[in-house]
Amino acid sequence: MERVLKNTKVSIALTAILNICLGITLLVYPKMTMTAICYAFGGVLIICALFHVFFYFKYKKQNSLVNFNIIIAIVTGVIGIWIVSKPSMVIYIIPVIFGFVLVIHSIVNVKQGIELKEKFYQHWWISFFMAVIHIGFASLLFINPFQAETTLMIAIGISLLYDGISSIWILTKIGKAEREIKK
Predict the structure, then answer these.
(1) Angle 135-141-144 (CA atoms, 0-180°, nearest 5)?
(2) Cβ 173 vs Cβ 130: under 8 Å
(3) Alpha helices in 65-121 (DSSP H)
(4) What is the pTM of this model?
(5) Which of 61, 65, 141 is nearest to 101 (CA)?
(6) What are the backbone dihedrals phi and psi of residue 61, each rounded to the nearest 5 degrees, phi first?
(7) From the record, what ranges are coiled-coil (predicted)?
(8) Rounded Cα gap, residues 171 and 131, in angstroms
(9) CB atoms within 10 A of CB 170
(10) How many C-beta atoms surround the C-beta of residue 164 within 10 A?
(11) Residues 109-132 pLDDT 10s
(12) Residue range 83-118, pLDDT digits in tens
């Protein structure tokens, strides 16, 4: 059980560090970063489509299940081409995805706050406060009051930066509470 907890903490810490890095990148280069992500994702989908076409033609006479590969290739290819040709449209979808991620992280923060309270940590309520802030950022991303996509990307960058920093803070407090309990 202790190993599982340690692995979970490492996973949370790595995710937090990645969120901080992506957040800083989005703050410094918001539009360029999101456009690059769209091109990369669209390119990956197009490559996947090409593999499906290859497998379709290579194995279509040997296995009837392979016929489904051409459908996957068409759908994946069309989506990939759409993403590469219209990255600005895709950029408007990304804030909603990040909003969902922030909601999930806020739920995790609430759970961690409960753990801190159970471990008698005096400032356990800060985790709940951080969860409320997460929900606030997520709401901004869902409601999308911003007109410019650059502003949206900066908001996502701030949200990710905050998410990473708050996750690391909570992890340090959980670790401190665990060490105090072991004494």
Answers:
(1) 135
(2) no
(3) 67-85, 87-118
(4) 0.51
(5) 141
(6) -85, -20
(7) none
(8) 14
(9) 23
(10) 22
(11) 788 788 888 877 788 888 778 888
(12) 999 988 887 777 777 777 778 878 877 887 888 888
